[in-house]
Specification:
This protein is α+β, with helices and mostly antiparallel strands. The chain is 34% helix and 19% strand. 13% of the residues are buried.
Length: 154
């Protein structure tokens, strides 16, 4: 679907102000409320909007440490068993500390974004828990020092 300027304005407003009453968003965008409702329903039907979610302050819930972990996959284990990146990705998704996991291109094969309470938990995740997954070879961890916030791209 090709997005027009109204579509982009609506999606931006919903991304940043999802809890704001739709009547207020319609007024801000100078749209009739019925038009906003109609377009949102169409975005949901087309799976442009797939869910509505909250943004969490991880400091306040005891998970202040954020890191990205690059993972090199071993496609064939010493036993000769083949391991596919998709299988590793599915195993990574089972960890509570892992927010996101991706198959990527470049020198690494997978990347995860993790949130933990402290460095001890991060260490245990990397050196113990991840090592139990067949196919995980070398890892490289990058700690987040400061975040500028998420910017939606529409």
């Amino acid at each position: 679907m090709e997005l027009d300027s109204v579509d982009k304005a609506i999606l931006n407003a919903i991304l940043w102000e999802a809890k704001t009453p739709l009547q207020n968003i319609a007024k801000k965008l100078h749209l009739p409320l019925s038009t906003l409702h109609h377009r949102l329903k169409r975005y949901e039907e087309l799976k442009i909007i797939t869910r509505y979610e909250a943004t969490i302050d991880y400091q306040k819930i005891g998970r202040p440490i954020e890191a990205f972990i690059l993972i090199e996959a071993m496609n064939v284990l010493p036993s000769g068993k083949k391991v596919y990146q998709q299988e590793i990705l599915e195993e990574l998704r089972k960890f509570d500390a892992i927010q996101e996991a991706y198959i990527i291109t470049g020198t690494a094969d997978l990347m995860t974004r993790v949130r933990v309470k402290d460095l001890d938990e991060l260490n245990e995740l990397i050196t113990v828990r991840l090592r139990k997954i067949d196919g995980i070879g070398a890892t490289q961890t990058m700690m987040v020092l400061k975040e500028s916030g998420h910017k939606p791209v529409i």
